[in-house]
Amino acid sequence: MDTKIWQGTIRRVLIIKFGAIGDVVMAIPAAYALHLAGAEVHWVGGAAVAPLLGCYPWIRTIVVDDRAILKGSATERVRGLLGLWRTVGWTKYDLCVTLYYDARYRIVMLPIRARRKVILSQTDRARMLLPGRHHTDEYARILLGWQDGERPVGLTPVRAERLPVSPLVRTEGKARVVLAPAGAKNMMRDDALRRWPVENYVALASFLLKRGVEVILAGGPGDMWAVAAFAGLAVTNMTGKLTLPEMLALLEDSDVIVTHDTGPLHMAGITGVGIVSIFGPTDPRGRLPQRADTVALWGGEGFACRPCYDGRDYAPCLHNGCVRQVSVEMVIREVEAVMEQRRSERPMPPRVVTPMSTVVAKL
């Protein structure tokens, strides 16, 4: 890809994106395009995503104390910013891109020496993630400085490197399905409207276990609340027990993951595991990993409010009806379809399925 759309060649770029995991994963293909064009890629990331960035040897990860900067006391915020500025302040960059809309992040950019500085904008079309387009392609358009007509289409996820051995030994001949029933939560907010009900995950786990499928629960330390719902089921609980590279290694060694619009979905995209995902208030056409063997079940067909997420807020909602419209039976059908496709070695293109229609819409 041509990175000379900016004035002059980009030799060194600084990306400021502390998290969340999904956004980081969707921005990596654009950073990879810059790397392939010869640019040196530096990335300011929080402690939570640093191990993920470390899976890419071509990224120089600059770990920042994002908790102190975003949620600490005034003293802690100043200390966190000064630590970052001491690390990057002496380096000259051709391009510094801050992948946030919040104007307060301009403070982070202040002492950084860059020929060109870019931050997302709610008013400038050239610097906003346009609705109806995949976030991966939009991040690329912004990072590469492309015009609308030159935007990349269908960029695939960049497979993770430097992965450890899978933390769980597989039983030969036994299918493995990973469930990530929690998530949709980060340091700044809890997006509970994105979650498929945990009781649906329990029903799905029960069905799969009866079919002789190995079922793994996965998630971060903050997802332990969901584990109790699976009491009495012979699932293997790895929630809060894995580093991000170990989670990626587990997914590489599994057949299918079932989850909603959350970090594990996007992590799965940079592995080879089959994906069955559940969407409602967010649009899967902008978030489902653009690779083979990925399916999104998009609930809320016929709802005037769907999708309601505008990039910052959701419409007032008391019942979460769009996500609840996706039944356990629908998910079972898609899990079986993905596993059959993988057994036959006939990859499926990414697709979106709606509950009230048998028509499959390809991305």
UniProtKB/TrEMBL annotation:
According to the record, the segments passing through the membrane are: 12-35
Q: Name one GO molecular function term.
A: ADP-heptose-lipopolysaccharide heptosyltransferase activity
Protein's GO biological process: lipopolysaccharide core region biosynthetic process
Query: A Pfam family this protein belongs to?
Result: Glyco_transf_9
EC assignment: 2.4.-.-
Its keywords, alphabetically, are: Glycosyltransferase, Membrane, Transferase, Transmembrane, Transmembrane helix
SUPFAM superfamilies per record: UDP-Glycosyltransferase/glycogen phosphorylase
Q: Which domain of life is it from?
A: Bacteria
Designated name of the protein = Glycosyltransferase family 9 protein
Q: Which organism is it from?
A: Edaphobacter paludis
Which taxonomic lineage does the organism of this UniProt entry have?
Bacteria, Pseudomonadati, Acidobacteriota, Terriglobia, Terriglobales
